[in-house]
């Protein structure tokens, strides 16, 4: 199994080191090769996604990605900024499904912005479509408004589009994920739309309903996005798997992340049609704490677990990592971002070492 390791910049290299430590400790037949990406690649070669890095990612079974976006590159033209690397990888690898679990570990319920009883035991999965929707729909641009109440005024416009195959494949990812979470069959998918207002999302709703015929064991419910935003903070445990488009998913996944109270704990996966995937923490490169050895490596370690589950067919090894993380939290070890009274404050490397010991 070939894994491309792309540490990135900011805290990326620090958190990736710990995930690699954990992967090595599993003694699996993994071939790991590292390449620079983002700010680190720009500094070395003048481009955030060098050809050699892209080639390594393409030929790997999976990519483990740290983070990119160090502020020192903020003044570069857009096409050279570190964030272009992740956008380029998504595009070149055809990564259309973004999976973001929001899990509230029993030891961390106090960190949530919601009451502990609302989030204790929370374990939901957001499946966000990543390559379509209003973010990429053409035409788009600025012009002089040709008609309407403001005809003649300067205006801007984007286009919301989804095709049947795009909706079908993301719906399948969601139904399969629901089954996988429930031992191979069952579970519930909530498809989030705005079918009452938008034709794109009436079509989305129709297509998801058709795909559901192949998954009769999985329950399907439809929910308008405004209601979903409300239910996520009112009764988040009512959800199991949420599937939605690019824009609604962008917003709802960040909302769900905050329910768990700790961005440093949240992994993510982005998959293509061949099951190849890019795995990364949900957070960015945290330039404010880079180089201090205090970043929480658990989101990256848990991303490595998702990689074993979704791209490398080793759910057993994934479960071992997840159990080790739970164990370390139960032992009271905390990086500063999740620290509270009565727990032991540790740094990035100490946290990684503890996970290895727990394994
Ligand atoms: P961020 O996620 O990097 O940081 C937000 C806050 O959370 C900061 O206070 C940071 O210190 C803290 N934080 C993040 N990860 C942490 C961890 N593992 N342990 C402890 N604390 C952690 O988001 P921000 O500040 O908006 O973005 C910083 C840069 O990262 C920007 O250039 C942004 O574009 C980029 N970014 C990159 C992403 C990626 O690589 N996929 C995703 C999101 C942002
Ligand atoms: Mg976002």
Structure notes:
This protein has twelve helices and 14 strands. It has helices at residues 12-25, 39-45, 51-59, 83-93, 116-119, 164-181, 199-212, 225-234, 246-259, 298-310, 315-330, 348-358, and strands at residues 2-8, 31-34, 62-67, 97-103, 123-129, 141-144, 154-157, 188-193, 219-224, 241-244, 267-271, 277-281, 333-334, 344-345. Helix 11 (315-330) packs across helix 12 (348-358). The radius of gyration is 21 Å and the shape is globular. The two termini are 21 Å apart.
Low-confidence stretches: none
Overall outline: globular
SSE series = EHEHHEHEHEEEHEHEHEHEEHHEEH
First-last Cα distance: 21 Å
In CATH's first tier, which class of the domain at 1-98 and 264-359 applies? Alpha Beta
Helical run tally: 12
Helix content estimate: 25-40%
Cross-sheet strand order for the largest sheet = 2-1-3-12-11-4-5-10-8-9
Second-tier CATH architecture of the domain at 1-98 and 264-359: 3-Layer(aba) Sandwich
CATH topology of the domain at 1-98 and 264-359: Isopropylmalate Dehydrogenase
> Mean of residue pLDDT?
95
């Amino acid at each position: 199994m070939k894994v491309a390791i792309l540490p990135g910049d900011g805290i990326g290299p620090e958190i990736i080191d710990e995930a690699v430590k954990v992967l090595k400790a599993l003694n699996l037949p993994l071939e790991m090769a590292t390449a620079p990406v983002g700010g680190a690649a720009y500094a070395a070669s003048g481009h955030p996604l060098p050809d050699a890095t892209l080639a390594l990612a393409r030929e790997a079974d999976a990519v483990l990605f740290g983070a990119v976006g160090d502020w020192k590159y903020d003044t570069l033209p857009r096409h050279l900024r570190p964030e272009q690397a992740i956008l380029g990888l998504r595009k070149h690898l055809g990564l259309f499904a973004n999976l973001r679990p929001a899990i509230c570990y029993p030891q961390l319920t106090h960190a949530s912005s919601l009451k502990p009883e609302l989030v204790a035991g929370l374990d939901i999965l957001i499946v966000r479509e990543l390559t379509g929707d209003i973010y990429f729909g053409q035409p788009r641009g600025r012009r002089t408004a040709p008609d309407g109440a403001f005809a003649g005024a300067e205006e801007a416009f984007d286009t919301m589009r989804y095709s049947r195959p795009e909706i079908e494949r993301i719906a399948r990812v969601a139904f399969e994920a629901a089954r996988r979470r429930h031992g191979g069959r069952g579970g519930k998918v909530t498809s989030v739309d705005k079918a009452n207002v938008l034709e794109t999302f009436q079509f989305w709703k129709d297509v998801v309903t058709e795909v559901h015929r192949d998954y009769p064991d999985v329950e399907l419910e439809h929910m308008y996005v405004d209601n979903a935003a409300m239910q996520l903070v009112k009764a988040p445990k009512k959800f199991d798997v949420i599937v939605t488009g690019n824009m609604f998913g962008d917003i709802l996944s960040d909302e769900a992340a905050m329910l768990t109270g700790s961005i440093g704990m949240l992994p993510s996966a982005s998959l293509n049609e061949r099951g190849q995937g890019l795995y990364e923490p949900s957070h960015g490169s945290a330039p404010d704490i880079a180089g201090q050895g205090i970043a929480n490596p658990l989101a990256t370690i848990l991303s490595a677990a998702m990689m074993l589950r979704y791209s490398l067919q080793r759910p057993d090894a994934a479960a071992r990592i997840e159990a080790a993380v739970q164990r370390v939290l139960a032992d009271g070890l905390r990086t500063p971002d999740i620290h509270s009274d009565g727990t032991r404050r540790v740094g990035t490397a100490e946290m990684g070492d503890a996970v290895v010991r727990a394994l």
